[in-house]
Amino acid sequence: MKELVEILAKALVDNPEEVMVAQSETDKTIHLQLIVASEDMGKVIGKQGRIANAIRTIVKAAAVKDGRRVHVDIDQ
Amino acid sequence: MRVAEKTGKTVEEAINACLDELGVEREKAKIEILEEPTKRGIFGIFGTTPAKVRVSYEVCPGELACDFLEKICNAMGVKAEISYTRKGSNWFVDITGEELGILIGRRGDTLEALQYITNLAVSKEMAERVRIIIDIEGYRQRREETLVRLAKRLSEKVKRTGHRVVLEPMNPHERRIIHTALQDDNRISTFSEGEEPNRKVVISLKRTKEIS
Questions:
Q1: ipTM for the predicted complex
Q2: Domain count along chain A
Q3: Do B124 and A11 make contact, defined as CB atoms within 8 angstroms?
Q4: Domain containing A32 — which CATH number?
Q5: B65 and B127 in a common domain
Q6: Are B47 and B78 in a shared domain?
Q7: Cβ distance of A7 and B105 shorter than 8 Å
Q8: Is the N or C terminus of chain B more exposed, i.e. has fewer CB atoms within 10 Å?
Q9: φ/ψ of residue A23, rounded to 5
C-alpha cells in the first residue's frame, strides 16, 4: 500500500527524492501519510483536491482485497 | 524528451554516464558533443578540461504509460497484460487479465482515476500535450453500449409519459455518450444540470415550437 502511494506520488512531483510515505495500521484501518516537498503540494492535491481524490480512489481499490479501510493524508 | 548532460575524462566516458542516468540504449539516443577534452598542462595533469556531452531521446507516451501502469499493477498485486496503440495524438492503453474488477471500480471510478493520474504522469515527461485513454477488459466499450441502450429506452419512456427523466450523476465522457445517442431524435432534448461531480443528464420532450 505504501509502495503504491510512493509510485503514484513520485510520478507526479518535481522532487521525487523528497517523497516519503509513513504507514501505520490498526486491525481495520491503514493510515498512510504522504509527505512531499512544499512546492509539490499542488501536484499531489490538484484543483479542488482532484488529484488527491484520484490517489485515494486507487489506493482504496488496492485495499479492497485486504478488506481494510485506507486513509491517505497529505503533508509537506 | 529526456535529456542528460555529463562531463567525463573522455567523450566515451561522458556518453556512458548519460546513458546510465537515462537508462536508454545508445541506438535510441541522440548524442551531442559539447566540449572535446583537452590536455594542455604538464603530463596532462594540470589545466585539463573534461569532455562534455548532451544525450537526449524521445520518449514514447505509450511506453511511459504502460511502464507506469505496470508498476501500479505490481504494487496492487494484480497480474495484467498492458499494451498500447496510437491514433493521432491519442494513445489507447489496453489492460487485460483476470479479476481486473478492482482496477475498474464502481461505475469505472478506479479506471477514471488511473487514467487521470496516468495522463498527468506522462504529460509531465512530454513536450507537447498527449491524451491517454485506458480501457480495461473492454469496459469502456461495454459501458458505452449500456448507456446508449439506456438512453434509447428512457427517451421512449419520456415520449410515452411526457415527463422528463433525470439520470444518475455521470462524468463528462458518459454524459456526452447520452447526449450523442439522442441528438438525432427530433422529439427529445437533452441537457445537463447540477455541479460536478453530481452533474446529471436530463432527458425531456422538446417543446412543440422547437420541433418545426
A1: 0.94
A2: 1
A3: yes
A4: 3.30.300.20
A5: yes
A6: no
A7: no
A8: C
A9: -120, 130
Note which residues in 30-49 of chain B have CB less than 8 A from chain A: none
Cell of B175: 454524459
Of all residues in chain B, the percent with pLDDT exceeding 90 is 67
Using the beta-carbon criterion (under 8 Å), do B102 and A54 form an inter-chain contact?
no
Q: What are the start-end ranges of the H helices in chain A?
A: 2-12, 41-45, 50-64
Residue B126: per-residue pLDDT: 85
Domain, as residue range, for A39? 2-75
Minimal CA separation from A53 to chain B, in Å:
8
Cβ separation of A12 and B76 shorter than 8 Å?
Answer: no
Omega before residue B169 within 30° of 0, cis: no
pLDDT in tens, B46-64: 667 889 999 988 888 999 9
| Boundaries of domain holding B10 | 2-57
Q: Where does a domain end: B137, B166, B201?
A: B137
pLDDT digits (tens, 9 = 90+) for A7-31: 999 999 999 999 999 999 888 899 9
